[in-house]
Specification:
It is found in: Membrane. Its main location: membrane. This is PQ loop repeat protein-like protein. The chain is an all-alpha fold. It contains eleven helices and no strands. The chain has one domain. Helix 2 packs parallel to helix 6, helix 6 packs antiparallel against helix 7 and helix 9 runs antiparallel to helix 10.
Amino acid sequence: MKDHLSERCRELSHPDVFQFSVSVFIVVGILVSYLPQHYKIISRRSSRGLSPLFVLLGTISGTASIANILTLPESTRDMRCCKEIGSYPCAAALLGIAQIGVQWTCFFFIMLLFLIFFPRSSLSSEDPSDIDEDTNLPTWKEAILVLAASLTFFVIALFGSIVFANAAPQYIRGWANFLGLLGTVLAAIQYIPQIITTWRLQAVGSLSVPMMCIQTPGSFVFAASLAVRLGPGGWSAWGLFILTGCLQGCLLAMSLGFLWRDRKAVRGESAEGSNGGAVAGDSERTPLLGNGRSETE
């Protein structure tokens, strides 16, 4: 019955259960990894600490990545096979696309939260980690430019892919590779302004460390999954995540260093406070006065 199927479609009609399970796990893992970042911005009601260029380049890079995998001949070939194979094999074949789609959606939501909770003034923040000079803070105009540029590139990628797929299919691989290279370059540049911003603040701010702890090793697992699915011909898709994993690891190490420094400072202050109480305890009257004052403060 399936003799008419191409060799690739026959291969996809019998998906490997283990590989399918791993791919589903990666999709869920990508979604879960972004939730701490979404939650942190919403709970703090501030996106301070996130670089506008980091958000912009990350959104454009994600758009380029989803457009890349949707236009790759290997991906379109697998999508065409869905007409001839069952629902389960089709879902297994398209999990690679779903992975990148979920990642793009999650980062696009970060961009929206960045705009919604964009800090208008450094005086409006009650978090000491948000304290910074106004000259170092992004402006509202920059935040609006992030949205405008992201939507503009989305339209360009969408219509460009439609034109190449229908009017010039012989150049579709070149267009897909261009999008993949663009996504890789932007992903590399993306972390440079965020690293600079985090270094200038000397604090993590609204950047989520749990998100990076999940995503840094997850990037390499994700890349391996795409490499197995797309093969060497899809290098422009999975190569992006190897590079971003390395760069995000650098940002994670810096953030953990700042958190460790701040924790040591808090412990030092607590130790000094307890030592001061012990000295005051040498007097029978001073502790009562000192404790009374400390409780009111």
